[in-house]
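Example record

The entry below shows one chain as it appears in the dataset: sequence first, then structure tokens.
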Amino acid sequence: MVAGWTKHGDGKTLAPGEVVRPDERLSWPRMIGFGAQHVIAMFGATFVFPLVMGLSPNIAIMFSGVATIMFLLIVKGKIPSYLGTSASFVGGVIAIRGFYGGDTPAADAIVTGSILVVGLALALVGVAIHYLGVHIINRIFPPVVTGAVVMLIGFGLAYVVADVYWPQDQWVALITMLVTFVIIVFFKGFIGRIGILLGLVFGFLLSLGLDKLAGPITSVLPGQNLRDATGALCAKEGPYCLATAFSHNRVGFGDVAKAPWIGIPDFHAPDFKVGAVVLVLPAVIVLIAENIGHVKAVGEMTATDVDPYMGRAIIGDGAATAVASAFGGSPTTTYAENIGVMAATRVYSTAAYYIAAVIAILFGLCPKFGALVAATPGGVLGGITVILYGMIGLLGAKIWTENRVDFSNPINMVPIGAGIILAIGPVRQTLGPNFFLEGIALGTIVVVGGYHLLRAIAPGTGDEPGRTGTELGSPGQIPGGGTGQRGEASG
């Protein structure tokens, strides 16, 4: 049911063992509270990852609301889920920016154009699943492959922490990381679940305090104070024009002061480059895995058969990603942290998600808020992203252990190990003039292609080598979107 929810009981309480089903609701004041809680749960990763990718957090927040409404309509209200910014594109986007001019409007358009194509591809996969059945995905992406792709996406981003964020302010990064550790582990329930967001707020305030008490810091900021080999200023970052250290405040509020309270975000049209599309296309694999895992989890919690809606869910995510990127927004995915909120509250009403979506859209219409988010210091992002990326990588190992993947089988071990190392490097494979595969994209192709190639040529292989135990998409198998069950990372 999309609208006209039935009131559950007296609309105030839940008896032991009862749940509020997707087509039910509690009283509207309570539903507004649950909707706001979903906004808080998704908020951290939904604005952190646009910052990492160099995209507008305002547009990302706004279109997370639009994407959620689209998703709920496409699945006919049967699968309560929130769609936030996906982390699966980060490595590919960084590679695109490195190849097409860095943090420029032209590169922004190429990034969002590439994401749009991936969204359309994902929607087509959803159509195929809807008509052919979900079993086809399980054969192409068995757990050994899915786990490897999730792992290399996380660990393949280690160089971003090491080379970009951490050096901007090492001590703030370290302290932010440690404080976030404590929040996630020490605090139970909802506070722990939003530990990433609280850690980021702490780091921001710490940086602001250090600016007041200790004064400016001297470090390198990407794209700023560009110098050539002679020390002279130069215009465009490249091999002979590098960002160099200079004295600066950790937090700057100049853009915040100039931004209006109410306004339309700075939308931009996409641009399309085949080479750029190739760099982010492997994210389709992870988005498929995330959506299957989340849909299965919701089905178990609500005690309903959601397999008939699996294809619709993937169509919804793909269509939402395409629409968001058409306006300059970020890619989307279903968020496991919101599934965690449902598990904790036993309220699965889609009404809460519609409310959350409307709140997110209103946030997106406040440019001053976006400017404040964009002022987040690099050192703070270093302390946060080292946790996010590490958790994403370890979720791949979680998939392997839950499915009892056999790494004594070389078909599993050889291509998986090679692909992960290629991603972590990151290793670049030049295929021609102005065209290459690097890091996560290269590693994913080696994992998927190598696994199926070895399976095809190896003698005596069974139907599904390296796969035992639960089916792909078991609840909890692939935490995605943002902060997982209690502050875990997004996919």
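Notes for this example: The first helix runs from residue 28 to 53. The beta strands are 6-7, 24-25, 83-85, 217-219, 226-227, 242-243, 246-248, 332-334, 428-432, 435-438.
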